[in-house]
């Protein structure tokens, strides 16, 4: 595969799209020349109670202040619900497809509006007010979207914690933002198994005194204890509540949600998104990138616990009046044809998933795909990690029958929505490239010193100026926000990713250049896994790095030094894997553990991760300079005892 493999835009697609190459070029030019004028117009895609007159007010210098539409007043739930009632109240808003292929349901915009209003009233009746934080720990059920929108309706700030996180991880996220309410379910379902959400929540809440009320969805009907005075059934609260609820007027810069994400140091940070800019960005990008057309069925396979679920299952599609599909299950249950069975069943037009799923399905061969017609598919998307050209081409040829363009969308929790991606009717594709920035986005590459690099080159990916969907701060820690994103290259937003730009100006994301891992599209910090390991009574020290992994993209490779007197054994390895899963969650399952009598350190005591990464990747003939090590013989030992 070379940079020269180009798949041109299909003429019929360009002809039918609102966003062809000429329109895209015109938008990009106008957004660059007159950002205020451009975004004033785009702001019209959502519903305002007071139309903003001040549009952009952002600086990446000094204290870093980012404001968009700052005198506008709105409520996000109105754009997702009320706005559609007159025109498409009876259109399906959410198709829910259960883990069990025999269970599904449909919710119209009118029904969703009522369900959201009921839950919003219920939250108010529990004393929840504008600005209060509500944590959601839910499976992929309609109630997750209802809970998000109900919070938005009354101005409460939701913080969703992915259902695969452990009680400890849930507790620390509740404590950080002092949530007063937790919304969860008795159990979740995934791949034919149940997930003990309420049990985990009870465990977490032992160390969360701020939580006064717990709302529990009866989902599986599993037997769970309810604590008198604290725990309430969702259905009981909902049934008692009225079906209309006045939306709280929110300033454009009032918070909409917090979402915790991993960085290279310390605890996960609370990424804060506000209301106006985020909603405009979610709507704008969902329409452009997927070339969304009214009436189409759109399916993003992410979980609402991640930012992709926020922007591209709930807020973006609903703001655009789309029919969005929510899937409770997994790609390989009851069999590896599940995705395509669901595509045919619900006549899905736009399908958005992660490279890790594509790679896993590719390994199963073409037959489970070909068994289904997939004729409804029009656009395919990819998100979460770099997609290797081989997987891209399989997705294109086998899943999309060479008919559907693939939008490889690059973005992050911090960016709120997609920043770099092809538009189906406008941008020629290159397998493995996220291609070009969206209108209004100014990416650039810089070298290690922050010098801007021109032309075809490789470097650190930065964004030069603000876009409406950008995060505004780290919750309760603006200094960390400045330090993390604006101090490495002052005056620029640093993504933490590296990228290459080819002669056509196309971006090829190469992956993180910091200590953040991307395991099956799940983001985690090496520091978090290390602190979980050293919390084990037998572990003295640990260093964690990523290693190449065929299916997961990256695997977790751990170097562990035991306390003196402790004996290494396979049983202890298993125990440590289970320990990390219990501390953080099953998504952080170590793939390899190597006993390290000592770790390679500089004379000042800094662990040389570069060398550890090379050993983990089995690239030991290119270790680079080891002369600064305090004790170079440590490396020999690690190489000869590599965990195969
Ligand atoms: O390394 C990039 C990778 O995922 C990181 C962001 O992770 P998260 O905040 O969890 O958001 C994931 C969903 C947007 C990025 O720093 N990443 C995301 N999309 C791509 C990608 N890497 C390459 N190509 C992509 N399309």
From TrEMBL:
Pfam families recorded: ACAS_N, AMP-binding, AMP-binding_C
Query: Taking every annotated instance into account, which residue ranges of this chain make up the domain AMP-binding enzyme C-terminal?
Result: 528-606
Q: Name one GO molecular function term.
A: acetate-CoA ligase activity
What are its E.C. numbers?
6.2.1.1
Can you give the residue ranges of the Acetyl-coenzyme A synthetase N-terminal domain?
Answer: 26-80
CDD domains, per database record: ACS
What is the role of the protein in this entry?
Answer: Catalyzes the conversion of acetate into acetyl-CoA (AcCoA), an essential intermediate at the junction of anabolic and catabolic pathways. AcsA undergoes a two-step reaction. In the first half reaction, AcsA combines acetate with ATP to form acetyl-adenylate (AcAMP) intermediate. In the second half reaction, it can then transfer the acetyl group from AcAMP to the sulfhydryl group of CoA, forming the product AcCoA.
User: Under which name does UniProt file this protein?
Assistant: Acetyl-coenzyme A synthetase
Q: What is the lineage of its organism?
A: Bacteria, Pseudomonadati, Pseudomonadota, Alphaproteobacteria, Acetobacterales
């Amino acid at each position: 595969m070379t940079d020269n493999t180009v798949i041109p835009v299909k003429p019929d697609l360009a002809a039918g799209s609102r966003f062809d190459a000429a329109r895209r070029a015109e938008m990009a030019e106008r957004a660059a020349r007159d950002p205020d004028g451009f975004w004033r117009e785009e702001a019209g895609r959502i519903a305002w109670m007071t139309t903003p007159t001040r549009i952009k007010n952002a600086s990446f210098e000094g204290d870093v202040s980012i404001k968009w539409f700052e005198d506008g007043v709105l409520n996000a739930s109105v754009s997702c619900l009320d706005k559609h009632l007159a025109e498409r109240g009876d259109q399906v808003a959410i198709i829910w497809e259960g883990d069990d292929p025999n269970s599904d349901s449909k919710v119209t915009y009118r029904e969703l509006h009522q369900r959201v209003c009921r839950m919003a009233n219920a939250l108010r009746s529990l004393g929840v007010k504008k600005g209060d934080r509500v944590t959601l720990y839910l499976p992929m059920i309609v109630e997750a979207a209802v809970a998000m929108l109900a919070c938005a309706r009354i101005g409460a700030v939701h913080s969703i914690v992915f259902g695969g996180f452990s009680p400890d991880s849930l507790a620390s996220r509740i404590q950080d933002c002092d949530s007063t309410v937790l919304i969860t379910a008795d159990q979740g379902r995934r791949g034919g198994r149940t997930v003990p959400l309420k049990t985990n929540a009870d465990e977490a809440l032992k160390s969360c005194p701020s939580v006064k009320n717990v709302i529990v969805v009866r989902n599986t009907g599993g037997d769970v204890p309810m604590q008198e005075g604290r725990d309430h059934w969702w259905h009981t609260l909902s049934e008692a509540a009225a079906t209309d609820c006045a939306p709280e007027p929110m300033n454009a810069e009032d918070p909409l949600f917090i979402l915790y994400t991993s960085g290279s140091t310390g605890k996960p940070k609370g990424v804060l998104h506000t209301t106006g800019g985020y909603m405009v960005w979610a709507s704008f990008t969902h329409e452009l990138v997927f070339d969304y057309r009214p009436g189409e069925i759109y399916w993003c396979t992410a979980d609402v616990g991640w930012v992709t679920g926020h922007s591209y299952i709930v807020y973006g599609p609903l703001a655009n009046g789309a029919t969005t599909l929510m899937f409770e299950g997994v790609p390989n249950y009851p069999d590896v044809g599940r995705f395509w069975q669901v595509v045919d069943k619900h006549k899905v037009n736009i399908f958005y998933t992660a490279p890790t799923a594509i790679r896993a399905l590719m390994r199963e061969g073409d037959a489970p795909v070909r068994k289904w017609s997939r004729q409804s598919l029009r656009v395919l998307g990819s998100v979460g990690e770099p997609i290797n050209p081989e997987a891209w081409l399989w997705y294109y040829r086998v899943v999309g029958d060479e008919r559907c363009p693939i939008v490889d969308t690059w973005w992050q929790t911090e960016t709120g929505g997609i920043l770099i991606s092809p538009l189906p009717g406008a941008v020629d594709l290159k397998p493995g490239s996220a291609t070009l920035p969206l209108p209004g986005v100014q990416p650039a590459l810089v070298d290690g010193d922050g010098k801007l690099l021109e032309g075809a080159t490789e470097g650190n990916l930065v964004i030069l100026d603000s876009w409406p969907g950008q995060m505004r701060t780290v919750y309760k820690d603006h200094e960390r926000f400045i330090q993390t994103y604006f101090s490495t290259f002052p005056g620029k937003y640093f993504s933490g990713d590296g990228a290459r730009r080819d002669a056509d100006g196309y971006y090829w994301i190469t992956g993180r250049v910091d200590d953040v891992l991307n395991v099956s599209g799940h983001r985690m910090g090496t520091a978090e896994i290390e602190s979980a390991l050293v919390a084990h009574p037998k572990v003295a020290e640990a260093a964690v790095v990523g290693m190449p992994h065929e299916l997961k993209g990256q695997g977790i490779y751990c170097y562990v030094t035991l306390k003196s007197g402790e004996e290494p054994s396979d049983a202890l390895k298993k125990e440590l894997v289970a320990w990390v899963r219990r501390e953080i969650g099953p998504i952080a399952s170590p793939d390899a553990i190597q006993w390290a009598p000592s770790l390679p350190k500089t004379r000042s005591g800094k662990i040389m991760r570069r060398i550890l990464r090379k050993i983990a990747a089995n690239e030991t003939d290119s270790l680079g300079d080891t002369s600064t090590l305090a004790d170079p013989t440590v490396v020999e030992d690690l190489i000869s005892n590599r965990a195969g």
